[in-house]
C-alpha cells in the first residue's frame, strides 16, 4: 500500500494534466475555461502537497479568483464566440513530432543527470511570516518594482477607460 | 477535538470525515431554518403572518418545500450548455461550503486551524463567482447573462474592501489563524476587536477605527453574498432572477442553500474577527461560561445575531442601482478602509 500523499499526488497530477489536455484540445472556448479552472485547482493542490500553503492559496486567489474570472468575463461579453471555428487540427505532424520528441528527450536527460538538491521536509513551519520577512528584507527591490509596475498598470487602465 | 478522535480511532481519514459531518449537518439544518426564519421575520416586519400551515406555526414549512424540490424533474433548457449548466450549482455550493473548514465553533472544534485561515476563507469564497458566471452563461438567457456580468463586477469589486477591512485585525493579532485571533480577544466584551482589542490605550485610540472597519466588513460581506441592498445580481424587478432563471428543482435548491450557507459563513467571519468568536462576553467573571461546550453556543448565537441583522436589512432597505453600488464601493468604502488601515498600522508599528 503506497503512502496517502503519493496516492493524492497522482490523483491531483492526473487532474492537472488531464484537464490541461482538454484546455488545448476542445473546440468550445467555455469548456477550455472551465477545464482551466480544474487544472489550476489541481496545481494548487500539488503546491499544498509540497507544504507550500501560501503559494497554493495565492494560486487559487490570483489565478482562479482573478485571471480566470477575467477570462470568462471576456468570453461572456464577446458575442458569438462559441460559434467561431477554433482550429485545433494539426497541420504539420512531422515538424511537431520532431520538436516535441526533441524537447522530451532533453527534459528526460536533464531530469536524470542533474544532482537535485534534496532536503528533508520541514514539518508545519509557518510559511507566511518567513515570506513576509524575506519580501521586506532581501527581496525588497523586486517587491517594490513589482508594486510600481502594478500601479502603472492601474493608472494606465484608468486612462484608457476614461475616453477623453 | 481532532486529536481526541484520531487517538480513539487510530485513523486519519476517518477523523476528517467525522469532523466534517457535524458541520454539514449544522449547515443543512441552519439553511432550512434560516429560510423559514427569513420568511417569518419578513412577515413580522410587514405585519403579516408568514408560513403557518405546515406544523405548528409553520415550523415544518421548509422541510416540505425541500421535499417538493427533490421530487421535481431535472429540467434544462434545450439551448443551454448541459455540462456547464449542471456543473455550476455544484461549484457554487462547494465554494460556499469549503469556507466552513476554517470557521471556529469552539476552542476545541474547528475544521482546520490553518496558519492562513483568513486568507484561505477569502481565496475559497472567491471561487463562488466562477460558478455564478458559468451558470449565467450556460443558461443561454439574456437575463441570466446580465446577472452573471453584474455578479462579477459586484463580487470582484467588493473583495477589496472586505480584505482591507479584515487586515487591521490581522495586524493587531499578528496572525491569520482564526483560533489565534479569537484567543487574542480573551477577557470579556471590552477586549473584542470591535472595541479596539485588549489594552486600555488601544481601546481609547482605536475604538472608532475598529468600529468603522467592522461595519465596513459587514457591509462588504453583505455584497459578497448578494444580499439586499446589494442583490442586483438577482434583482427580480430588473432581470427577473438573474443567474437562477433557468434552474429548477434541486439545482435551484443548491443555489439557495449555498446563499444561506454563505450568509452564516460571513457572519461567523465578522464575529470571529470583531466580536470575539466563541469567547464569552463576560470573560473571567463567570468562568463557567467559557466552558468549551458552551463556546459552541456563543459562536453560533453571535453568528445567528448577525444573520438576523442581514435579514433585517434585506426587508428594510431598497436595492441599490448598479452605478450607486460601484460608487459605494470605490468612492466610500475603499478610501475609508485605507485610512483605517493606515492609522491602525501606524499604531501597530509604534
Q: Can you tell me the CATH architecture of the largest domain in chain A? A: Up-down Bundle
- From the N-terminal CA to the C-terminal CA of chain B, the straight-line distance is 38 Å
Please work out how many helical segments of chain A DSSP would assign: 6
Strand runs of chain A, count:
0
Question: Any descriptors?
Answer:
heterodimer, A: about 160 residues, mainly alpha, Four Helix Bundle (Hemerythrin (Met), subunit A), 2 domains, 6 helices, about 75% helix, about 0% strand, extended, B: about 350 residues, two-stranded antiparallel ribbon, 13 helices
Overview of this structure, please?
- The complex is a heterodimer of chains A (164) and B (350).
- Chain A is mainly alpha-helical and 164 residues long.
- Chain A folds into two domains: 1-86, Up-down Bundle (Four Helix Bundle (Hemerythrin (Met), subunit A)); 126-164.
- Helix content of chain A is 74%, strand content 0%.
- Chain A has six helices and no strands.
- In chain A, helix 1 (4-25) packs antiparallel against helix 2 (29-49) and helix 2 packs antiparallel against helix 3.
- In chain B, helix 3 (61-71) crosses helix 11 (249-274), helix 4 (82-98) packs antiparallel against helix 6 (128-138) and helix 11 (249-274) crosses helix 12.
- Chain B has helices at residues 2-9, 12-45, 61-71, 82-98, 117-125, 128-138, 142-173, 178-184, 200-224, 236-239, 249-274, 292-314, 322-349; strands at residues 104-106, 109-110.
- In chain B, a hairpin with a 2-residue loop joins strand 1 and strand 2 (109-110).
- Chain B has 350 residues and is an all-alpha fold.
- Chain B is globular, with a radius of gyration of 21 Å.
- Chain B has two domains: 1-71; 79-349, no CATH class.
- Chain B has a two-stranded antiparallel ribbon.
- Classes of the chains: A mainly alpha (164), B mainly alpha (350).
- At the A-B interface, helix 2 and helix 3 of A face helix 4, helix 5, helix 6 and helix 7 of B.
